[in-house]
Design goal:
Layout (H helix, E strand, L loop, with lengths): L1 E4 L3 E5 H7 L3 H10 L4 E3 L8 E3 L5 H11 L2 H11 L6 H8 L11 H21 L2 H8 L5 H10 L14 H14 L19 H12 L8 H15 L8 H7 L2 H12 L1 H8 L15 E13 L5 E11 L4 E8 L4 H15 L5 E4 L5 H6 L2 H5 L2 E4 L9 H12 L23 H6 L7 H17 L9 H6 L11 H8 L1 E2 L4 E4 L2 E6 L2 E6 L9 H7 L3 E7 L2 E11 L2 E10 L12 H31 L38 H10 L5 H7 L1
Parallel strand pairs: 5-8, 8-9
Antiparallel strand pairs: 1-2, 2-4, 3-4, 5-6, 6-7, 10-14, 11-12, 11-14, 12-13, 13-16, 14-15, 15-16
Helix pairs in contact: 5-6, 8-9, 10-13, 13-14
C-alpha cells in the first residue's frame, strides 16, 4: 500500500485508498481539486501514487488508524527495492526434476523462486552498512526487523514460505548461503505414502482392486486385507488407508485399473484422446442418421400400451430433421424410407452421410444403398455417442418438444433428472385414453415441424430458414434417374416378356405391366419385337404403377424403356364401360395391321430371294379373320365330302371328331 517515489517521497497507492477509505467518485474529485497530489499515474502494471505528506489531515488519520504509522511501514517498501529477479533461480526450479522423474508443481516453483529472491535481498542488505541503516535503522536487532518485514510482504506479489521465527529464518538464510537453491526444496517433497509400498505389494494392491469377480467393495476392505497379509508377505503394515488411496489414484496407476472396475467403455470415455471438431458451414455437407425410441406411449388395436421406433436423417449444419420413418423396429425399410424422404425434401445429394452400424444399416451397406446417395459414406465409431451429433439433437428435441405431451415416455433410461422421467402414475391411470398409432404419427410430424421452424441455437433465424438459405456447390441436384438409381429396387431374377406383357409375383401378389405409346395404347410393335426376351426390372416399392426395364449386356445393365401397370378390361359386355369397347376395337385393329405388315414384309423378302410360294407354283394363304379369298369356291357334289380348304374348318372338324381307334384319327388328316 506504501511506496517511495523517486526513492525519497513516501506515497500511498491510489488503489488501496479507493478500496479502504475513499469512494472512486470522491477520489477523482479530490485529485481534480488538488486535495490529493498524484505523483504517478497508474498503467502498464504501475500503481497510481498519492503523496502522503500533502494529504488532508482527516485522510492521514484514517490511514494511520487502519495500518499504523506509514513511516514505519515504509521500511518494508525500501526492502522491496532490494528484491530483484533471479534468472538463475528461475531456470533452476523450472527445470528441476524430482526423484520420481516429475517436475515441480507450478505452485512450488513460484514459492521457491520467491524464497530465493527474498533471501538474496537479505544478503545484499546484511552485506552493506548503508543498506542496514536505510532499511533497518542500524544493526541492532537487525534479524528481528528483517523477520517482521519479510512476513509483512504481500503474498500475491511474493508467494514465499520463509519462517516468521527469527532464529529459524536466520538458520534458513545460513543454509541457503551454504547449499544454494537445493536447500529450499523440501526434503520430503513428492514422497507420498504410496511410495512406502514394496513393488510386489503394489502389484497385489492393483490386482486386488481390479478383480472383477471377487470384488473389493471399499478402500477400508482393501486396507484390512492388506494388513492381514502384510506379515505373511513380509510387507510393512500400513497405518492408514490413505497410503492405498494415494497409490491407486495416481493417474499413472488409475488408468490401468479403471476399465476393469468400471467397464472399458467408461475408461475409453475418460482416457482416450478426444478430437475438437468444427461443424459444417453449409447445408448437405454432412447428414447423420440414427434410429431411436419414439418417446410416446400409444394404445394398439388390442388396447395395450406400446412404444415404437423412429429413424431420422439430420442435416448437421442447420439441425433440420430432413426425413424420417416410424416403425416397430430399426430395419432396412425404415432407413430406406427416411433417406428417400430426406432426398426428396433436400433436392440434392449430401456430400457425406454418417450412420451407426447397427440394425438394418448392415443390409443397407451390403446393397451399397448409402454409397449411391452420397460421395462419402462412413459409419460412426461404435459405442461412441460423442461421434454422433444427432444424439445431442435427439436429446434437445425430446426435452424441448416431445416432453410437452402427457404420454411422453421420458428420455434416456440413464437420465437422472426428474424432469427427464415419465409421469408413469398419471400415464397408467389414463392408459385407456392413450392416442392411437396414427394419432402419434400425426403429432410427431407436428413436433418435427416445430423443431425445424424454431430458432437455431447459433443463429437469429429458424433451422429451416438456415437450411433453405444455404447452398453447397459440391452437391448436385437430384434428377429422376438419380432417384431410380438410389431408391428403386432391382429384382434379382429377370422376367420374360410374353403376349400378356411383363408379369411377375412379389410377396404373393401378381403385377402386370405393359409398354404403352404416347397415346396410352399398348405398343404392339414393341411387344411383337420383344416376345420371349428377358428383362431386368427396377421399381419403386412405394409406387408400383411404373417399372423400368433393362437388358443385361457385357458392359452392365442398359435401360430399354418403362412399363406401366397393364390396363384391364371386362370380358363380359354387361360390365364393360363405354371406353372399354372402343379400347378393345382399337387394339384389335392395331393387331390386324401389325399382322398384315409383318406378313407383307416377310413376303417381300421371300420374293426378293426367289423363295415365295408363288415361285414354286403354289398359293400364299390369306390371313384368316382379316382377308377373304377373291375366287369363288366350287361346290362339290352333295355325296362327296366337302373339300377342306379353310384352316378354321379343319380345326373345327378335328375338335368334333370322336375317335374310336387310332386309325380313324389319322384318317382325318
Amino acid at each position: 500500500m506504501f511506496e517511495y517515489y523517486n526513492n525519497n517521497i513516501l506515497c500511498v497507492q491510489a488503489g488501496w485508498l479507493v478500496d479502504s477509505i475513499l469512494s472512486k467518485s470522491n477520489y477523482d474529485a479530490l485529485v481534480k481539486r488538488g486535495h490529493l497530489k498524484r505523483l504517478q499515474k497508474g498503467g502498464n502494471g504501475r500503481p497510481a501514487l498519492i503523496e502522503f505528506a500533502t494529504m488532508r489531515k482527516d485522510i492521514k488519520e484514517k490511514i494511520v488508524s487502519i495500518v499504523g504509522d506509514p513511516t514505519e511501514k515504509a521500511k518494508h517498501i525500501t526492502f522491496t527495492d532490494y528484491i530483484t529477479i533471479d534468472d538463475t533461480a528461475r531456470t533452476y526450479f523450472n527445470t528441476y526434476t524430482l526423484p520420481s522423474g516429475e517436475s515441480l508443481p507450478d505452485k512450488n516453483k513460484a514459492e521457491y523462486i520467491a524464497n530465493s529472491e527474498i533471501l538474496n535481498a537479505v544478503e545484499r542488505i546484511m552485506n552493506s552498512t548503508m543498506s542496514k541503516r536505510k532499511v533497518l535503522g542500524g544493526k541492532v536487532k537487525a534479524w528481528d526487523k528483517i523477520a517482521q518485514v519479510v512476513q509483512e510482504l504481500p503474498q500475491h506479489t511474493y508467494p514465499h514460505s520463509l519462517p516468521a521465527n527469527v532464529r529459524r529464518l536466520r538458520d534458513k538464510f545460513n543454509l541457503y548461503k551454504k547449499d544454494g537453491y537445493s536447500s529450499l526444496i523440501h526434503k520430503g517433497f513428492g514422497h507420498k505414502n504410496s511410495e512406502k509400498l514394496a513393488d510386489d505389494a503394489k502389484f497385489w494392491v492393483l490386482a486386488r482392486w481390479s478383480d472383477r469377480v471377487n470384488r473389493c467393495a471399499t478402500y477400508s476392505q482393501l486396507f484390512s486385507e492388506y494388513n492381514s497379509l502384510a506379515k505373511q508377505k513380509g510387507w510393512k503394515e500400513l497405518k492408514t488407508e490413505q497410503t492405498l488411496i494415494n497409490f491407486l489414484t495416481d493417474p499413472k496407476i488409475e488408468n490401468m485399473w479403471y476399465g476393469h472396475r468400471f467397464g472399458e467403455l467408461n475408461a475409453k470415455e475418460k482416457y482416450s484422446y478426444q478430437h475438437s471438431t468444427k461443424l459444417p458451414s453449409m447445408r448437405d455437407s454432412l447428414w447423420y442418421s440414427d434410429g431411436t425410441k419414439l418417446n410416446y406411449y400409444y394404445q394398439d388395436e388390442k388396447g395395450k400400451m406400446q412404444t415404437c421406433q423412429v429413424y431420422e436423417v439430420y442435416d448437421v449444419y442447420s439441425e433440420v430433421f430432413l426425413g424420417y420413418h416410424i416403425s416397430d423396429s430399426e430395419n432396412f425399410e425404415a432407413q430406406y424410407a427416411a433417406y428417400k424422404m430426406a432426398i426428396q425434401i433436400a433436392g440434392h445429394r449430401p456430400y457425406e452421410v454418417k450412420f451407426d452400424n447397427q440394425g438394418g444399416t448392415k443390409t443397407l451397406k451390403s446393397q451399397s444403398f448409402l454409397g449411391r446417395i452420397s460421395k462419402l459414406c462412413l459409419n460412426t465409431a461404435p459405442y461412441n455417442g460423442k461421434s454422433k451429433t444427432i444424439e445431442n439433437a435427439f436429446y434437445r428435441f425430446q426435452n424441448e418438444h416431445l416432453k410437452k405431451d402427457w404420454f411422453f415416455t421420458g428420455q434416456n433410461i440413464q437420465s437422472k433428472k426428474a424432469e427427464s422421467k415419465a409421469n408413469m402414475e398419471f400415464i397408467l391411470a389414463n392408459a385407456s385414453s392413450l392416442p392411437t398409432l396414427e394419432e402419434i404419427k400425426e403429432l410427431y410430424a407436428q413436433r418435427r415441424r416445430e423443431w425445424n421452424e424454431s430458432k437455431h441455437p447459433k443463429s437469429d433465424i429458424s433451422r429451416l430458414e438456415m437450411y433453405l438459405n444455404s447452398t453447397n456447390p459440391a452437391t448436385s441436384p437430384v434428377q429422376i434417374w438419380d432417384m431410380i438409381d438410389m431408391f428403386w429396387i432391382e429384382r434379382p431374377k429377370p422376367v420374360t416378356c410374353t403376349a400378356y406383357g411383363i408379369s411377375f409375383k412379389d410377396k404373393g401378389h401378381k403385377y402386370d405391366y405393359m409398354v404403352y405409346d404416347e397415346n396410352n395404347m399398348p405398343n404392339i410393335n414393341w411387344l411383337r419385337n420383344n416376345i420371349d426376351k428377358k428383362f431386368k426390372i427396377k421399381y419403386d416399392p412405394d409406387d408400383r404403377s411404373i417399372i423400368q426395364l433393362y437388358e443385361e449386356t457385357p458392359l452392365g445393365l442398359r435401360h430399354v424403356t418403362e412399363a406401366l401397370t397393364k390396363i384391364e378390361v371386362h370380358r363380359g359386355a354387361q360390365e364393360q364401360e363405354e371406353w372399354e369397347l372402343s379400347y378393345i376395337r382399337q387394339i384389335e385393329k392395331a393387331n390386324k395391321e401389325e399382322r398384315i405388315a409383318t406378313r407383307d414384309k416377310m413376303d417381300a423378302i421371300l420374293t426378293d430371294q426367289g423363295r415365295n410360294a408363288t415361285d414354286y407354283g403354289l398359293k400364299n394363304p390369306s390371313i384368316k379373320g382379316i382377308e377373304s379369298s377373291s375366287k369363288q369356291k366350287k361346290k362339290r357334289k352333295k355325296k362327296t365330302k366337302k373339300e377342306r380348304t379353310d384352316i378354321g374348318q379343319y380345326q373345327k372338324e378335328l375338335s368334333n371328331t370322336v375317335p374310336t381307334d387310332t386309325k380313324n384319327i389319322y384318317s382325318i388328316m
